[in-house]
């Protein structure tokens, strides 16, 4: 099951599957690459949705700085620095004190390297399967990391120019980037230590449960039960990984879905509130206003080509 959360006005939400893994929309069919520049101000509340995927993710900060959470660990990504996130790691970025941040984001699926089995086994699998390598912080002051960061910028520029054969140049750069990372890994200097402990798995289970059942009447007890933990442990895990309570996270997701419906459909605000799991319109409007700085009616009325909203 897929939930589409893309908006026409340039606001970004994340497409996710039932297990909450992100559905990556690659730039070219048949080439598992995704390259974009972005700003946190284009995300609801300047915070991305918690997600994970099979792709390797590279982030480089162009301007400003960003809080970046990986399996509950908070990195502060400084200007010109970045991070490589290994596959299937739970992660998201958010603003620091609501300040904007511009960045490059490049996703590459390991399948890009899999045509040559020897290359894949020798250079990819040791890192992909190392549970201690959740991420690599890319420090622009480190020569090896600076090469990777410069390569990310070059890839982005190649895509922007779009000249014939640019895909081949980008793939060639990725091979050089991975050679650099593999050398560091072999030398024993890859990343911050970590492994997917039981809490990480439980958090994924509970987030997946919310994504699948947000339209229903959910309680702290039902969310905790989906992860097989008590309510106290549930709250501890959400605070550790998402810096929110379970109910706050549930409401944030419901509000994101409702904003999508306000943009994409002509359903009444009352109907949208109900479909998103809110039993009382006044409570929905209060939370929406707090989250977006305007009422649902005002939010819909600001959309290009839309008349003032109904009730």
Automatic annotation (TrEMBL):
Taxonomic superkingdom: Bacteria
GO molecular function: DNA-binding transcription factor activity; sequence-specific DNA binding
Gene3D superfamilies in the cross-refs: Homeodomain-like (1.10.10.60), Jelly Rolls (2.60.120.10)
CDD domains assigned to the protein according to its UniProt record, in alphabetical order: cupin_RmlC-like
SUPFAM superfamilies hit by this protein: Homeodomain-like, Regulatory protein AraC
Annotated coiled-coil segments of the chain: none
Domain HTH araC/xylS-type: 204-302
Cross-referenced Pfam families: AraC_binding, HTH_18
Presence of keyword Ribosomal protein: no
InterPro entries: AraC-bd, Homeodomain-like_sf, HTH-like, HTH_AraC, HTH_AraC-typ_CS, RmlC-like_jellyroll, Tscrpt_reg_AraC-type_HTH
Keyword list, A-Z: DNA-binding, Transcription, Transcription regulation
Listed name of the protein: AraC-like DNA-binding protein
Organism expressing this protein natively: Hungatella effluvii
